[in-house]
Amino acid sequence: PMPPMDEVWSGTLRYSIVRVQGADDAVLAVRGETLDVAATRAMQVRAMVRDWIEQDEQQVRLVCTADLDVLEPHQGVAFGFAADLLCDGVVVASFRFDDRPLQMGRRLVFNGSVVATHDGTGIDADPSRWSVRIRGDATESLRWVDCDRYWAGEFSVPMERVME
Predict the structure, then answer these.
(1) Are 68 and 93 in contact (CB under 8 A)?
(2) Is residue 118 predicted with pLDDT exceeding 80?
């Protein structure tokens, strides 16, 4: 339902707009041990693996939950996340998260999935070869409109710790 006419806001907002080539030019990349520890502590990673159409393919669904209470004390620094699936330290696929993370109280939930091709030894058969790398991403950090810097660090989690 529409609010009564006397409750509608009116006014003027002024913004400075600058044309940039990409997200990396719009926000400043920052790193540091304090930010790396905060990102690692804030992010809970879970992965579900299932066989796909071809014998050498598996679908990996990644669910990452970020704790805002851990991230917000770092005023002015955006935490936009991206993730990669690695086998023996080599990127096999990059996750594409949903356009909008689900907000559940003080947590943001990011969902993504990839289809990964393997060399005959599936992820679930030998998870010790596989890991998930969580990294800061300039484009994803633009969701935090009040920030002019973003976390550009990364951390990896062994697949055997995150598989369900």
Answers:
(1) no
(2) no
